[in-house]
Write a structure and sequence with these properties.
The protein has one domain. Helices cover 8% and strands 42% of the residues. The chain has 53 residues and is mainly β.
Length: 53
C-alpha cells in the first residue's frame, strides 16, 4: 500500500475494508507502521494527523 502524503510504501499483510460508492478503503495500521511516525489525534473534531517528523 502506498501512502502518497508520506511518500511511503507498506508491504506485507494488511487488513482493509472497502466502503462507499467510490471504493474508498479503511485500513488498520498497527505498531509495525506507527513506530516510524508521529501521530496526533484531535478528539474534539476526530482528526488524526500522521507525519514522519
Amino acid at each position: 500500500m502506498f501512502i502518497p502524503d508520506l511518500d511511503w510504501t507498506i508491504e506485507g499483510r494488511l487488513l482493509g475494508v472497502s466502503y462507499g460508492v467510490e471504493q474508498q478503503w479503511s485500513v488498520i495500521l498497527g505498531r509495525a507502521f506507527l513506530q516510524h511516525v508521529v501521530m496526533h489525534y484531535d478528539g474534539r473534531i476526530g482528526e488524526v494527523t500522521v507525519s514522519t517528523d
